[in-house]
Amino acid sequence: MRARDRTAVSALRATLAALDNAEAVPVADAGQRGSALEQSPVGAGATEAARRELSEGAAADIVREEITERLRVAATLTEPAHADRAARLRAEAAVLRPFLEN
């Protein structure tokens, strides 16, 4: 049971990070700041940039990409020495699949 939990945690953390990265605003869109002290932002949240909101379809595409990438890498790990890693990647893909089902 613990091994399955580690697998699920690994898959979910990586997928959440991919979703978080997709919501990030590119640096060019975040606005330019001057380097002078008087132009420096002050206060809590002054340097925060608004995040993009992903549609349900865009989020599903990212989850699908995470699954595809894990299965692609697992397929390339054909040597017996890599069997454990390939199995773990397939298990991670299996953890993510239910998130695509409606």
Helix content: 55-70%
Instruction: State the end-to-end distance.
Output: 26 Å
Q: How much beta, percentage-wise?
A: under 5%
Please report the total strand number as a whole number: 0
* Major β-sheet profile: none
Helices, by number, come to 3
List keywords for this structure.
102 residues; mainly alpha; 56% helix; elongated
Protein described:
The chain is mainly alpha-helical and 102 residues long. The protein has 3 helices and no strands. The chain has helices at 2-23, 56-76, 83-96. Helix 1 (2-23) packs across helix 2, helix 1 packs across helix 3 (83-96) and helix 2 packs antiparallel against helix 3. The radius of gyration is 19 Å and the shape is elongated. The mean pLDDT is 84.
Summarize the entry for a quick read:
With 102 residues, the protein is mainly α. It has helices at residues 2-23, 56-76, 83-96. The protein has three helices and no strands.
Topology overview:
Elements: H1 2-23, H2 56-76, H3 83-96
Helix pairs in contact: 1-2, 1-3, 2-3
